[in-house]
Amino acid sequence: MKTAILGGTFNPIHNGHLAIAKGAAEKLGLDRVILIPTFVPPHKELGDFLAPVEHRLKMCELAAAEEALLEVSDMELRRGGRSYTLETVCELLKNDTISKLYFICGADMFLSIKSWYGYEELIRKVIFCAAPRNNTDPEILTLAAEALRADGGRALLLDLSEMDLSSTKIRLLLKNHLSVKGLLPARVEEYIYVHGLYV
Fold first, then answer.
1. Would you call 196 helix, strand, or coil by DSSP?
2. Is the pLDDT of residue 45 over 60?
3. 34 three-class SS
4. Whole-prediction pTM
5. Packing angle, helices 53-64 and 186-195, rounded to 10
6. Are 37 and 134 in contact (CB under 8 A)?
7. How far is 2 from 6, CA to CA, in rounded Å?
8. Number of separate domains in the chain
9. Which domain holds residue 85?
10. 30 in a domain, yes or no?
11. Three-state DSSP class for residue 17
């Protein structure tokens, strides 16, 4: 199966994440995209509020429920501690039904790959797919992709429509009691209100 990982804190998951997953699936002819919430992301500051893992997992499950191509894995949450992509990839590749494994990430994350744990091994196991992000220079992305290929890795730049949407923006709207209608799947929005998250 042609499989892609879309990891993140998903704090909360929103329509931008889903658009990237569906767009990548269409462009790459994927059989499935696995959403993998991180326990503790190694490349993000946690000064902002991070919802408990069980809530972030449940929101991903609600978002994926209506999308046939989407699956959710709790492997990083079960593992605990800092979430390293290499460990996740090695665990997934034990499944012999995976013929090709892609790793979808935002442009900002793509530019930091060289600093990741196990970089040399990781780039030989997955095909990196960078999704566009507002204010990221396409030329810089192209240079980063060329550098990764020069190191022996594989990289694709996804030609997807950009959405001016982020989890940070959504949390700010919720904190200020402003509408997030249309920014999240309706079931995720309802879950946030029921559980009093991000207020």
1. coil
2. no
3. strand
4. 0.91
5. 150
6. no
7. 13
8. 1
9. 2-163
10. yes
11. helix
